[in-house]
Specification:
mainly alpha; Arc Repressor Mutant, subunit A; 83% helix; rod-shaped
Length: 103
């Protein structure tokens, strides 16, 4: 995970995402860089447009989070109606009890 963060940090700083820079960032974080992982990351990111990947990644969770919220709205509304009906029944019962006292 630290290698991905290093690549993102380099990209944000507008620095080239190459093996030397990734190793420097990982080392600065206090982790001994693994040459194989660094090479794999740099070669994998060589063909990726990081800006586009970030835009697509940011849009996907928001769209997924909106769907359950929309589905939950009718359920919450139905529960609210049931609670309101129960509240009315309790009030009616309380009033009936008072009317029996004052007959």
């Amino acid at each position: 995970m630290e290698y991905i963060y290093a690549a993102l940090l380099l990209h944000k700083a507008k620095q080239p995402v190459n093996e030397d820079n990734v190793k420097k960032v990982v080392s600065a974080a206090g982790v001994t860089p693994d040459d194989v992982r660094v090479k794999a990351l740099v070669s994998a990111l060589g063909e990726v447009n990081i800006d586009e990947a970030l835009k697509n990644a940011a849009a996907a969770p928001m769209a997924a989070a909106a769907a359950p919220a929309q589905a939950a709205a009718p359920v919450a509304a139905a529960k609210g109606k049931e609670e309101a009906k129960e509240e009315e029944k309790k009030e009616e019962q309380a009033l009936e009890g008072l009317s029996s006292l004052f007959g």
